[in-house]
């Protein structure tokens, strides 16, 4: 189960189902509520890429104003950014990419060739220090902090062009950071609950039986991926990838046949919804901020297209 839009999509579906049999006035209010839920859904991975690209463009402009070069860099295609998560049921993607091992290798290689790293290394010592300060505020940059539901505290720098870009996208950084970290913590808590949820575990057993019939004896999708990774260390790369694709395709087919992803999303939504009484404001706040940031990202993309 990945971070992206599974939670709110499932919540919206459940809310829509509950309006059956209501009066016309109740239907109207429920439809309005469902529309509001849709507006406050979690971003898809494509939308997250759009936010990342917009932030990089803002950083590039800010750095140029201070006499430095900054490259907007995204080495992977949107398709390659497709999340696998706990389970994925896109058979065509699995047939092409397996579990994404080659994509991960490409990403690892790309990190080493990041043109921003190369540019920074080309600068003299003093100039490099100025670059770092311009980029993130350096050692004196202000810190913002956020407490999360499990009692921990997260902090991050909010200075330089990175901080300026985030502020232009998300508005007040303290509000955004606190709401975002709270939402992330709640998702983790909900996912832990899903793994113990009887409806989910029953779906996993159906998935495992399906995989057994396909010739793959795994108890759950995580076990399948781990076995594939272990096997890859003992096989030539081409042979390892073919084995990965074979298992991942069966995994995706069985996920579809058993509705494992649908069950996971519905149960995740259920467990998130149980937390809304205490943390609903934070969840709504982070979704509104993300929605507004996406609108700004669209305008930034239009100006730079």
UniProtKB/TrEMBL annotation:
This is Lipoprotein.
């Amino acid at each position: 189960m990945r971070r992206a839009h599974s939670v709110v999509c499932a919540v919206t579906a459940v809310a829509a189902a509950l309006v059956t049999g209501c009066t016309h006035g109740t239907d109207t209010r429920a439809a309005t509520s469902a529309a509001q839920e849709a507006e406050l859904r979690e971003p898809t991975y494509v939308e997250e890429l759009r936010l990342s690209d917009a932030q990089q463009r803002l950083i590039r402009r800010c750095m140029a104003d201070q006499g430095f070069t900054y490259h907007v860099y995204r080495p992977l295609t949107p398709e390659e950014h497709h999340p696998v998560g706990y389970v994925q049921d896109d058979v065509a993607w699995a047939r092409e990419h397996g579990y994404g091992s080659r994509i991960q290798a490409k990403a690892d290689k790309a990190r080493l060739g990041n043109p921003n790293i190369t540019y920074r290394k080309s600068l003299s010592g003093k100039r490099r220090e100025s670059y770092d300060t311009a980029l993130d505020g350096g050692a004196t940059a202000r810190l913002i902090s956020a407490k999360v539901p499990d009692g921990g505290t997260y902090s991050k720098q909010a200075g330089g062009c990175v901080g300026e870009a985030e502020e232009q996208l998300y508005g007040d950084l303290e509000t955004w950071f606190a709401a975002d970290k709270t939402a992330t913590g709640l998702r983790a808590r909900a996912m832990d609950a899903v793994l113990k949820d009887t409806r989910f575990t029953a779906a996993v057993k159906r998935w495992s039986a399906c995989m057994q019939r396909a010739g793959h004896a795994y108890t759950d999708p995580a076990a399948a991926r781990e076995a594939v990774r272990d096997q890859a260390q003992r096989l030539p790369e081409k042979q390892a990838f073919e084995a990965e694709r074979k298992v991942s395709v069966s995994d995706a087919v069985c996920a579809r046949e058993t509705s494992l992803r649908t069950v996971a999303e519905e149960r995740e939504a259920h467990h998130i919804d149980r937390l809304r009484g205490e943390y609903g404001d934070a969840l709504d706040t982070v979704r509104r901020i993300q929605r507004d940031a996406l609108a700004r990202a669209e305008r930034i993309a239009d100006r730079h297209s």
